Amino acid sequence: MNHTIYFNAAQNMSQIKDKSVDLVVTSPPYPMIEMWDDIMSNQNQDIRSAFDNNKPREAFELMHQELDKVWKECWRVLKDGSFLCINIGDATRTINGEFALYNNNTQIIQACEKLGFINLPNILWRKATNAPNKFMGSGMLPCGAYVTLEHEWILIFRKGGKRVYKTAEAKESRRDSSFFWEERNVWFSDVWEIKGVKQNINKAPSRERNASYPLEIPYRLINMYSQKGDVVLDPFMGLGTTAIAAIINERNSVGYEIDPLLKPLLKDILNSTDISQANVFLYNRYKKHLDFVEERIKQKKEVKYDNEKLNCKVMTGQETNLAFHYLKSITLQKDNDELSFETSYFLDRKIEDMPPTEQGSLFFSE
Q1: Structure pTM?
Q2: Which of 10, 54, 185, 327 is the 20 to 30 A CA-CA neighbour of 263?
C-alpha cells in the first residue's frame, strides 16, 4: 500500500486524478474557532479585514467559502458511489460583546448538497466532559447561562448511487473487508460516545495545539465506507491520524497539509509507527469478538456461522470471509516536496501466531 502527503492547500489537489479516490475522511479547521483564524485569513485577507471591522458573520461566510473550494475538489476526485465523511464542530464565540453560535455543520451540508452530494444520516460524536468550569454564563441565575457544546458532527455524504461491484475480485475484497456483527451495531448508530484526545504538540514549530480527532473515528469510518486496497484521502492531514487508520486497515492514503513546518513531525510520526502495537490492536479486536461469542453462548443464544480464516464463530454469513492482515513494514520512499511511504502486510498470518496479550494500543482511544 502507498501513502503520500502533499504540502500545499487542498483548494487545489491537482496531483490527484478525477474519480480516483474511494473515500474522504477528514476534519477541517473549524471556522470561528480562534486557533484557526490565522491559517484561514492567510487564504483570504478579506477574512482578517472582517474580523478587524467587527463583522463576525462576514468572516464566518468567507471562511466557509474557502472550505467550499475543498469540497468541490473532493467531488472531482471521488469515484461515483464513494463517500465523503467530515468531522466538524460548531463554534461559539464572543466578538464585540456578542456571544453567538456559528453552525458549521449546516454550512457544510448546504455547500456539499449544492455540489451534488447526497447527505445520508449523520453521526453525533458526543465527547462529554465533567470539567467543573464547562458551563458558560451566569451559572445558577436564569436567563444568563448558555448550553454547553459537548458534541461534534460526523457528516456522511455519498457521491451518486450505491457503489457497484462488477468483478469477482472486487466482490471478494468486499467480503474480506467485512466487520463483526456486534461492531456494526455500534459503528452504525447515530451517536458515538468517544473521548477526545489531548491537543498539545511538543515538536511543531508553527503551533502549540492540535485539533486531531481520536484514531477510533477514522478507523471506524474507513472500515464502514471502504474496503482493503481502496484509496483514502484526507485534505486536512494535520498529524496524520487518518493516514495511520488507513495503514492499520490496509488501505492506500493521500493527504494534504497546508503547513510545511509540520513535515518533519509527520515524517517522524508515520516513520516510527509502532508496528507491534498496530498488530496488537487488531488482535485485541479479535479477542473482543471472542469474548462477545463466549458471552452469547453462555446466555444460550445462537452463533450460527464459522469463520475459518479467524478460527472463530460469527453471527452472519457475511462475516465468514473476514480476515485480519497484519502490518509487516513501513518504509519511507520519498522525502522531497512530498512524503511517501510504502506499507506491507502479512496477508494470511494465522491469528494464533499473535501474542496472547490484552494490552491497549498506543493509538487507540477507548
Answers
A1: 0.90
A2: 327
Side chain identity at 226, as an amino acid letter? S
pLDDT digits (tens, 9 = 90+) for 86-107: 999 999 999 888 889 999 999 9
The span from the CA of 49 to the CA of 56, in Å, is 10
pLDDT at 280: 81
Q: What CATH number corresponds to the domain at position 251?
A: 3.40.50.150
CA distances to 21, 53, 154, 278 from 29, in Å: 22, 22, 14, 28
Q: How far apart are the first and last CA of the chain?
A: 27
At 48 the three-state DSSP class reads helix
Compute φ and ψ for 31, nearest 5 degrees: -55, 135
Location of C-alpha cell 477514522 = 218
Number of folded domains that form the chain: 1
Backbone angles phi, psi at 174, to 5 degrees: -65, -45
Task: Give the rounded percent of residues in the chain with a pLDDT score beyond 90.
Answer: 70
Give the range of the structural domain holding residue 259, as residue numbers without chain letter. 2-271
Over 60: is that where the pLDDT of 143 sits?
Answer: yes
**Which residues touch 342 (CB under 8 Å, ≥6 apart)?**
1, 2, 3, 330, 331, 333
- On whether residue 226 sits in a domain, the answer given is yes
Closest CA to 74 of 151, 21, 3: 21
Average pLDDT in the chain: 88
Question: How many CA within 13 A on the CB side of residue 65?
Answer: 12
pLDDT: is 279 or 8 the higher one? 8
- The secondary structure element, H or E, covering residue 256 is strand 252-256
